[in-house]
Amino acid sequence: MQPGNRGVKANRHHKRGNKRIRRTSARAAFTLIEFVIVLLIMAIAAGLIIPNAAPQTEQQLRAAAHLIAAEIELARDLAITYNSQYKLTFDTKNNRIVLVHTGGNSALNTLPQDLVNNPASDSTHRIIDLSTVPGLLGQVQIAACAEFRTTLTANSEIIFGPTGDPANGKSFLVWLKAGQGQWTRYITVFFDQSTGQVFIGSMNGVPPPF
């Protein structure tokens, strides 16, 4: 079966994936709970006094977080559906997310037609530019990304294999930011490799550690 013919199937997986996105909760892996605790300790230790952010800032951050969570789910679903590898790159410089096929079957390099959305109509890339997403008004930026097992290590990409697990066996974390100065706010999107789920954190004033 050709990739284009399976676009509907992949898109169906994408839609189901969106329903699996949940906020951070007690059901998350223990490592995620530990990380959230560390963030809280960092905020207290730094003596951060966080003024109330404008409601619009929180809405924009949460909208962007759900968008990124959906892209992570999409990449994972494609890897499982086509029994191959798909890579998501988080380009902090250009504020965009890029999805490509990186597996051995070159026929899959052409993405399902309904997933191709870049201006150049390059069928091998799916590009989400946060600077041009309606509703975000160019205010949300990808602040940092990291892989995570026992420690955080800066890493801008995650590759999913046929089982839906990251190729490096590690969880993945994305920081988004909006606002300026004392009004700068952050929100995290966390992929937990132990559960295969995506979690969205709470908005706060704690920047990435690197």
What does this structure look like?
The strands form two sheets. Strands 1-10-9-8-5-6 form a six-stranded mixed beta sheet, covered by helices on one side. Strands 4-3-2-7 form a four-stranded antiparallel beta sheet. Helix 1 crosses helix 3 (55-82). Residues 21-29 and 46-50 have low confidence and may be disordered. It is of the alpha+beta class and 210 residues long. The protein contains three helices and ten strands; from the N terminus they run αβααβββββββββ. The protein is globular, with a radius of gyration of 17 Å. It has a single domain, classed as minor pseudopilin epsh fold (3-Layer(bab) Sandwich), CATH 3.55.40.10. It has helices spanning 7-20, 30-45, 55-82, and strands at 22-23, 86-91, 96-101, 126-129, 141-148, 152-154, 157-160, 171-178, 185-192, 197-200.
Give the terminus-to-terminus CA distance: 44 Å
What CATH calls the topology is minor pseudopilin epsh fold
Helix content: 25-40%
Strand order of the largest sheet: 1-10-9-8-5-6
CATH architecture: 3-Layer(bab) Sandwich
Residue stretches low in confidence (pLDDT < 50, at least 5 long) are 21-29, 46-50
Domain module tally: 1
